[in-house]
């Protein structure tokens, strides 16, 4: 059907996510999937948050939805996290039917993969790696919770949170996320590892495994830059969260528990909405730090959102090289193509502009006619960044949004999931050849 419309790969990707969200919203609207009344807009919001692996919620997942509703949310997270086309490809391969050329191009967009003959084998490896990691995570969590919950509940909770963590969704069946478990080493470290593995990018994981198996002599620039950036962000976030919250939300905990929670809360903003600390109680400095981490997000080819770690690294490298007076951008003894640098700048600028517009929209629709109140601006700015970065952390304003606010956040979550890919596609599009060019003229900057 999509062939008849001659849609581009990014358009097919966006349409597949939109269709999945609509199907999920109708399923969650069915009476047997939730307790009491649930508006269609709330079911649409929940479905969009699950498919876009965000984690922002307007109703409590653990109490509002029945077991069937929670299973539907879990399936939406899994399919949305890895991409609808990835699962479709696996089904076709099992049926002995390879995907079309356009299908391969869509997969390249999903996995941020350069065209190679090994694309289909990569898809198989991605699915296999995902299932293995999620199974290990679910097993650890199940046995960890077996003394707290009945076996059936421990198994389901283990599976739900393992998939939610690896897909960087941030959905939790606990009303206050992991705040009651801030002294639980096993839980927080297991979730953190799943978040990192799910957010670092499938290609990076594959390349590292090949390197360990001596099947690859050297790591690519992409993998090196991703690993360095992720490591620096985690260390940077952990240290400063520890400093900012030492006498606030971390007060009363031992040094080891303070470091544990600072580490966990430094990992989750990129890009899963789990929290062991009460977000609304954090210091302003911590909230700004979380906004930065949410804006950067995960790595290309992963389940997470944000502008991506490599985009941030390229942007910082661009600024540094220009300040040093260099013509080209150099990173780790390599020169980046101008096209890559331009794409990073466009993505950085466009994301910033979207956040700015969304914040104004939320303030005008949620606080129209009200005088300035301390904390309101930062709360809605935090919400906008969380939605675009598909993070799911919130200071508590999500459940208070009116219909206009919910619709705006739904749109932003959708853009955050598929928008960067679409932006990259259009930036990569070849310019139509012209026989002329306009006269050059300078303008004053700064």
UniProtKB/TrEMBL annotation:
Sorted UniProt keywords: Cell membrane, Ion transport, Membrane, Potassium, Potassium transport, Transmembrane, Transmembrane helix, Transport
One CC-aspect GO term: plasma membrane
A Pfam family reported for this protein in Swiss-Prot or TrEMBL: TrkH
InterPro entries: Cat_transpt, TrkH
Compartment annotation: Cell membrane
Primary localisation category: membrane
Keyword Disulfide bond carried by entry: no
Cytoplasm found in the keyword field: no
GO molecular function ontology, one term from the record: potassium:chloride symporter activity
Chain segments annotated as transmembrane: 12-32, 38-59, 71-95, 126-143, 155-174, 186-205, 225-244, 277-296, 340-363, 375-395, 407-427
NCBIfam families membership: 2a38
Matches recorded under PANTHER family: KTR SYSTEM POTASSIUM UPTAKE PROTEIN B, TRK SYSTEM POTASSIUM UPTAKE PROTEIN TRKG-RELATED
Official protein name in the record: ATPase
Annotated source species: Desulfofervidus auxilii
